[in-house]
Write a structure and sequence with these properties.
This protein has ten helices and five strands. With 210 residues, the chain is an alpha/beta fold. It folds into two domains: 2-82, Methyltransferase, Methionine Synthase (B12-binding Domains), Chain A, domain 1; 90-209, Rossmann fold, CATH 3.40.50. A five-stranded parallel beta sheet has the order 2-1-3-4-5, sandwiched between helices. The relative contact order is 0.13.
C-alpha cells in the first residue's frame, strides 16, 4: 500500500512532521495502528538499520530517523494499547554503574523500539539493584547492558551474578555491548550475546527471542 511506503520513506529521511501527518492520514483511512506501525514505521527503521550496517548511514542520520519514527509511535501508542497489541518483547537497557556514556545505548534503544520492542531505558550509571528491580517488575525478556570504559565493563559480571542470585537469570537473556566489550568477554561472563553496534543488537535481540 502506497501510504505505508510513504511513511517508511519519511522515516528513512528523518522527516518527523511528515511522518505524523501520514500516520494521521492512514488512521483516517481506517488502517489499523498495528499495520501502520509494522508496515510503515518498523519497515522504515529496518531500512535505516540496513543502511547503518552498510555504512551508508551514520549515527546522526540514525538519530534523526529514530526521532521521526518516535513521532509516529507517539500517535499510535495509545491506540496500540487500546487494541491490546503486544510488543515483540520487553527489553530493559542501561549503561552500567560508574559509566555516563549513553549515546550508543540510546541508539540501541531507539532501533529496538523501531523494530517493535518495548524499551525500559534505565539511563546511565545504573547499579545492579536497579537492573534486577526492573527486570523483575517489568517481566523483561532481555537485559541490555552497555559500557564504554574498561573499568566499568567488569561491573557487567556483577549484574549477571545479581540476576542469578535473584533467580531471574533463567527467565531473561542478557546482551552486552560498548567499545571495550568483546565476544570473548561476553562468553567469559556468560552473557547470551554481544553486539558491536546498534544494528547488530537489533538482529541479536530478534535471534535470541525467536
Amino acid at each position: 500500500m502506497a501510504i505505508f511506503e510513504q511513511i517508511a520513506n519519511e522515516v528513512v529521511k528523518g522527516q518527523a512532521d511528515a511522518v505524523k501527518k501520514l500516520v494521521n492520514q492512514a488512521l483516517s483511512e481506517n488502517i489499523s495502528a498495528e499495520d501502520i506501525m509494522n508496515n510503515g514505521l518498523v519497515a522504515g527503521m529496518n531500512v535505516v538499520s540496513e543502511k547503518f550496517k552498510n555504512n551508508e548511514f551514520f549515527i546522526p542520520e540514525v538519530l534523526v530517523s529514530a526521532r521521526a519514527m518516535t513521532a509516529g509511535l507517539e500517535i499510535l501508542n495509545p491506540l496500540l494499547a487500546e487494541a491490546n497489541v503486544k510488543a515483540k518483547g520487553k527489553v530493559v537497557i542501561g549503561t552500567v554503574k560508574g559509566d555516563l556514556h549513553d549515546i550508543g545505548k540510546n541508539i540501541v534503544g531507539m532501533m529496538l523500539q523501531g523494530a517493535g520492542y518495548e524499551i525500559i531505558d534505565l539511563g546511565a550509571d545504573v547499579p545492579k539493584e536497579k537492573f534486577i528491580e526492573f527486570t523483575q517488575k517489568e517481566d523483561a525478556n532481555v537485559v541490555g547492558m552497555s559500557a564504554l570504559l574498561t573499568t566499568t565493563m567488569i561491573y557487567m559480571q556483577e549484574i549477571i551474578q545479581g540476576l542469578k542470585d535473584a533467580g531471574l537469570r533463567d527467565k531473561v537473556k542478557v546482551i552486552i555491548g560498548g567499545a571495550p566489550v568483546t565476544q570473548a568477554y561476553a562468553d567469559q561472563i556468560e552473557a547470551d550475546g554481544y553486539a558491536p553496534d546498534a544494528a547488530t543488537a537489533v538482529d541479536l535481540a530478534k535471534d535470541i527471542l525467536d
